[in-house]
Fold this sequence. Notes:
Largest sheet: 2 strands, antiparallel
Shape: flat
Order of helices and strands: HHHHEEHHHH
Strand order of the largest sheet: 1-2
Structural class: mainly alpha
Mean pLDDT: 77
Helix content: 55-70%
Oligomer: single chain
Amino acid sequence: xxxPGAPLSRSWGADVRSGDRFLAGLIMMTxxxxxxxxxxxxxxxxxxxxYAGLSGKKNRPMxxxxxxxxxxxxxxxxxxxxxxxxFGFFRITQGAxxxxxxxxxxxxxxxxxSKASIRADLCLxxxxxxxxxxxxxxxxxxxxxxxxxxxxxxxxxxxxxxLELSEEQEIxxxxxxxAETGTKPRRTWKGVLLLGGAIGLIxxxxxxxxxxxxIL
Length: 216
């Protein structure tokens, strides 16, 4: 239950199990990739951005815009479709521009969705699931601590990061079956409704994009 003054991301994490969040992420990823509409894919990207924020993940707007801009720029190097403008020998064409936007939104949307859907305490069944979950956990911790690695102290930063990951691994091994907070979130109706609503919203937008591709 959310306590007065508690961050929304903490309440979200307490109501939604990591396995349920991972499964919901797979479903949303599938319907997201099926959406042909650039406009609606942009709306979905913004929703994934908010979803990641609610999950406690930090997003960097400038980095995201730089990556998306680079994808669009490289796509413009192969012109096709209606010419929208020319700058010397460089032509901006409608097909290349829309194709670049579609690729950029798809890539960044998947990145935001993966941030929100994968949590460090994710436990998947079987040996392969355990290995995959551990890989996700290590990747998440590296992304959270990557600021420790600076240009002046690259080797020292990597060494310190690996030592911290090793210590965390020992602690997790001693407290197997417990989440990072010390209590494993239980499946609640609130969590089910939150994830169901997210899946329904993303799926509805993709359905609109498939149903009215020329309009949207």
